[in-house]
């Protein structure tokens, strides 16, 4: 059974956040809130976590996983960003965007797109996600909590706990965080390519 953590959406309880972070360090797969849907998250190097996310979401090896980062300093360790791209991304973060960029050697091979050697990165604008990232001290390997054959993600923590009780290790509930996933922008070719229209305003990248 998954542990259930009820977290205040504006003033997350430090002890609770610390317990969630400890679970992740120990290899847990968690469902947690972001500024754009709930997400599945685990430690960056967790082969088991990656496999479980693929299984829950029925993903193939071409799926771009996302490294959810606390800030730009952290993001810069895992992707190559030139000056023009840096300015474009900086202006749009934190926010509901995922950016696909060439990965550095810090990113485990199993996370990379098999041909492009790219990975998704984002900096969320969500109090609970930011508190968890600060406590963890490293990015969360993440994927939107969208189940196969369903058009919209689940938005209620209790529902996630009920339906995924035996396939995730913990659920962090801080209330509804919407059903619209991030806007995905591919910068791997230098120019912005809109891969998915989502919660983030696309006009700045058109």
TrEMBL record:
Pfam families linked: Sua5_yciO_yrdC (PF01300)
Annotated SUPFAM superfamilies: YrdC/RibB
Domain YrdC-like: from-to ranges: 14-200
A GO molecular function held by the record: double-stranded RNA binding
InterPro entries, per database record: DHBP_synth_RibB-like_a/b_dom, Sua5-like_dom, SUA5_domain
NCBIfam families referenced in this protein's UniProt entry, alphabetically: L-threonylcarbamoyladenylate synthase (TIGR00057)
Protein's UniProt name: tRNA threonylcarbamoyl adenosine modification protein, Sua5/YciO/YrdC/YwlC family
């Amino acid at each position: 059974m998954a542990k259930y953590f009820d977290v205040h959406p504006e003033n997350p309880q430090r002890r609770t956040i610390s317990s969630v972070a400890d679970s992740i360090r120990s290899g847990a797969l968690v469902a947690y809130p972001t500024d754009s849907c709930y997400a599945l998250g685990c430690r960056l190097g967790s082969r088991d976590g990656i496999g479980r996310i693929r299984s829950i979401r029925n993903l193939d090896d071409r799926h771009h996983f996302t490294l959810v980062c606390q800030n730009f300093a952290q993001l810069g360790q895992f992707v190559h960003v030139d000056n023009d791209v840096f300015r474009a991304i900086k202006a749009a973060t934190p926010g509901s965007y995922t950016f696909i960029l060439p990965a550095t050697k810090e990113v485990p091979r199993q996370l990379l797109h098999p041909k492009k050697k790219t990975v998704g990165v984002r900096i969320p604008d969500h109090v609970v996600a930011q508190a968890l990232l600060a406590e963890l001290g490293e990015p969360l390997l993440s994927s939107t909590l969208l189940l196969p054959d369903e058009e919209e993600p689940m938005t209620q923590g209790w529902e996630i706990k009920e339906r995924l009780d035996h396939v995730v290790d913990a659920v962090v509930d801080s209330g509804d965080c919407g059903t619209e996933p991030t806007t995905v922008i591919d910068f791997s070719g230098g120019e912005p390519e809109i891969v998915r229209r989502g919660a983030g305003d696309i006009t700045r990248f058109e």
